[in-house]
Design a protein that fits this description.
It is a single chain. This protein is of the alpha/beta class and 232 residues long. It contains eight helices and nine strands. The strands form three sheets. It has a five-stranded parallel beta sheet, sandwiched between helices. Helix 1 runs parallel beside helix 6, helix 4 packs across helix 6 and helix 7 packs across helix 8. It is elongated. The two termini are 37 Å apart. 25% of the residues are buried.
Length: 232
Amino acid sequence: MLEIDVLTLFPDMVLGPLSQSILGRAGDAGIVSVRAHNLRDWAYDKHRRTDDYLCGGGQGMLMKCEPVFAAVEQLRRENTRIILMTPQGRTFNQSIARELADHSGHYIILCGHYEGVDQRIIDTLVDIELSIGDYILTNGAIAAVIVIDAITRLIPGTLGDERSSEEESFADGLLEAPAYTKPNEYRGMQVPEILLSGNHKAIADWKREQAIIRTQTNRPDLHEAWLRRQQG
């Protein structure tokens, strides 16, 4: 079982999405266990404050050391890795998701808020800084849910067909090929005949070709990276 503790000011924002659909079933099956904790539970002043003004001045508020250190010290185990969700982190992608899914153990995900966290938290506690993209969210809880979703679906037993995660976009550096279902004809639009041929080799070749075309059109950056890997 992969165990994840999320430290946030908004636990319900984490637990709500993770109780639904595939992720909810993964939790019920004991594949992953996610617990969301309110950081205010480790804030011991009378106002239970988790933030304060920036030293040296500046806009906004910064998350304080004391609650975060106290929470991590209580929850951390020998095999724990601590992730900070922050715009300053590595951009999260499928390769990182696979790396994290392959770590059988325990994660603590710290969700940034306000102007982020005191640098001493990063220097002392954090193993991995992650960002889900070049934009700013209200808080890191939303980003944490995305990371947990991407990791969990790569763990064996989460998806009904284990091939699903191998055939999705980004699994081999390319986007997925176009996909179709019944009816074979709808409003004059036909399912490509090759997909109805029963020729599995030809279908696989068609999907590969279409994946390359789609990646080149929609994500030229991924296409260039894929080409470089093909060339050795």
